[in-house]
Structures are given as structure tokens and as C-alpha cells.
Amino acid sequence: MLAQEQKRNYKREQKTNTREFRAMTEIVQDVFSLVSVSLFIVASAMWIGAF
């Protein structure tokens, strides 16, 4: 009985962990895309400024 309860709690914890991890990866992806876009804009500006 107790073992089943522990197993259930463990599964619930795992689900929360994956949800948090997913949120983290989404944030990282957003930041990465923002950084790459701004880098692209800066590179374009420098390229245009060079000519």
C-alpha cells in the first residue's frame, strides 16, 4: 500500500520535472532566437555600413 503511494508520488514528481524542463527549454529557445535575430540585424547593419 505504502509502496504504491510512493510510486504515485514519484510519477507525479517526474511529470512536474518534465513540465519545468519543457518550460526551461522553451525559454532557452526564445532567448536563442532573439539573440540570433539581433546578431543578424547587427551584422546586416555593419555590412550595409561598410558599403
Give a description of the structure.
The chain has one domain (1-51). It is built from one helix and no strands. It has one helix spanning 2-50. The mean pLDDT is 90.
Tags for this model:
51 residues; mainly alpha; 1 helix
Short structural description:
The chain is mostly helical and 51 residues long. It contains 1 helix and no strands.
Q: Radius of gyration, Cα only, in angstroms?
A: 22 Å
Helix percent band:
over 70%
Distance between the termini: 75 Å
Strand percent estimate: under 5%
User: How many discrete structural domains?
Assistant: 1
Itemize the secondary structure elements and their pairings.
Blueprint: H1 2-50
